[in-house]
Amino acid sequence: MRILIMAAGSYGDVAPYTGLGVRLRGEGHEVALAAPEAFRELVSGSGLTFRSLPVDPRGGASEGNEGRSSLLARAAAFVERLGDGLADAAAPGADLLLLATTTAPLGWHLAEAMEVPSIGVYLQPTLPTGEFPPVVGPGRSLGRWGNRAAGELGQRVVDRLHAGAARRLRMRLGLPGHSQTARRRAVERADWPILHGFSSALVPRPADWRRGLAVVGNWWPHVAADYRLPAEVEDFLRAGPPPVFIGFGSMAAGQGERLSGLAVEALRRARVRGVLQSGWSGLGSREDDVLTIGELPHSHLFPRMAAVVHHAGAGTAAATLRAGVPSVPVPVAADQPFWAGRITRLGAATGPIPFAALTAARLGEAVRQAVEDRSYRDRAESVARRMAGEDGAARVVQAVAELPVPPRR
After folding, report:
1. What's the rounded Cα separation, in Å, for the pair 6 and 103?
2. Would you give the distance in Å from CA 103 to the centre of its chain?
3. For the whole model, what pTM was predicted?
4. Of the candidates 165, 155, 160, the residue with the CA atom closest to the CA atom of residue 86
5. Does one domain contain both 371 and 394?
6. Which structural domain range is residue 369 located in?
7. pLDDT tens-digit profile of 291-330?
8. What confidence score (pLDDT) does residue 51 get?
9. Among 375, 42, 19, 17, which residue's Cα sits nearest to residue 225?
């Protein structure tokens, strides 16, 4: 079967699909991954066919100091460019579309025009539920009725965000006029399947979700079987006690100088060595007991850490739990406060430090707690054992295998 995975966003929105794609390819499928041009090497290096999307992943990224209106404006501009890009990526053809959270609202129209099945492969629990408030929002529970109402309102906001791009996409594809809201409701009435790639240890499947929605466990970024950490990293790790990792991923672009000084001072206060991942903020240090690195597989790096300071993106939060190490979450925006709250309630993380309130003193104290209080590591290791029994990629493979075999075109 020819499978096209469509994912758009920052590194954490794309990298997990390389592992999923490799797994599907191992089952004999032809797999292509459509993603922003910035991730061509990441996708091609996994052995998957790359199809470029003409969107800048930094276009939807938060600087850590934007208001809601500014974030919505950036998201709207991102969606405007995405529609034609998805259509171009789908033009070579496919027998099945696998749609991420960011691409599904427009991907539904593509699947309709191509007359092929599609499956949602989401990294966030975005469907309305009474069990928790929307993952992007203030985070305070509004009670069962209020949580669900807020989730439904959020869906209408997403509909409006995609309305113009969807209208133009349908015209390009020769489809009859159909509003974005009407298309979404038709998908929901058909119990469109969505497999959620996160652990039920973090988010159990809500009891009030409709049929077709499942929580299956993570699919992880592809890492070659023979991969080894660079010699410089290995030498640093072996030269002393386990260090503390600090990285903000795709967040806080342009704030590297301030954050680097803050991070080094926090490590000094906690009396620990450190590994700074440069990321989009450009973290770095020349201190002897602090190593600066670029993008390295969390699966190989995190198990060697005493604790991990991170922005609480879905993938990084899960990777820290998988490694069985304590977290110090510093959420910046979007769904990050949601995941920070989840790992904290599990007892595997210190209390979240909002990015806007981050100081060297506060971070240093949280790092000290994470390293010295064994309960955080014990709880993280317990969750890691539970996650080890999950195989989200296998569940996607199974769902694909259960689809009718498409006729060759």
Report:
1. 6
2. 13
3. 0.93
4. 165
5. no
6. 231-388
7. 999 999 999 999 999 999 999 999 999 999 999 999 999 9
8. 97
9. 19
